[in-house]
Amino acid sequence: MGKWLMTLLYLAVSVFLTRLIPFSSFFRNLDTMMHEFCHALTALLLSGQVLGIELHSDHSGVTYTRLASSWSSLPVSMSGYVGASLFSLLLFALHRRRAQRLGLALIVAVAALMLILFVHGGFGMAWLAVFIALTGTMLFLGPKIRSFYYLLLAFLTLEESALGPITLALTALSSPSRAGDATNLANATGVPAVFWALLFVLVSLACATRSLQLFMRGRKEDKAYGR
User: Fold this and answer.
1) CA-CA distance, 10 to 89, in Å (whole number)?
2) Is the pTM value of this prediction over 0.85?
């Protein structure tokens, strides 16, 4: 429990500091992109169809699917928040291995797939085009600029992947019928939406705690080797 309290403290400080960075709101849509991509990918893996994805300027999104079976709605609904949390952890694991270029290439690849296959209009299409161009450019810049950009994306994704489930849990408590994926899971299983929302919170905090541990160990190693 103590580790999770420290994680919440670090997240609060990170949220405050990153909001001081100009245009940070633009990059927060990366978490939304991964959330919706995980929904889409899971649907496709379960022989379903993805009819389209919308990304909105308020960092929300919607994935429209046609599923092959009713039970498929369970993993598809769960995959958004869980997948986004795991992706945040992956970014910090790659940073620990000093594989920031690989991480950025992966982000560009996912964004390109989203643009080509799923997002075909509105804010999401414009955002993806600009984000791909900017992140692709970072692949060819110097290591210091690339590292700063990578950590900005990593921390913003970490924040959003943790704050999203917490907000969802509060919504599930006050308005269970408006709790998005948690509501879908409640309708499919009969288990209250707040249960699913709290499950997402636990997963996100576990991933966030591990992510921060990887980041702090990487900093200690850098100091030990005089980098």
Assistant:
1) 15
2) yes
Over residues 208-213, mean pLDDT: 92
DSSP state of 28: T
Give me the DSSP letters along 119-146. --SHHHHHHHHHHHHHHHHHTTS-HHHH
Helices within the chain (DSSP H only): 2-18, 24-27, 29-45, 73-96, 100-113, 122-138, 143-174, 180-189, 193-224
Task: Match 């998005």 to its residue by tokens.
Answer: 180
Strand partners, 50: 65
**CA-CA distance, 206 to 107, in Å (whole number)?**
22
DSSP class of residue 53 equals E
Write out pLDDT tens, residues 187-205: 999 999 999 999 999 999 9
pLDDT exceeds 80 at position 8: no
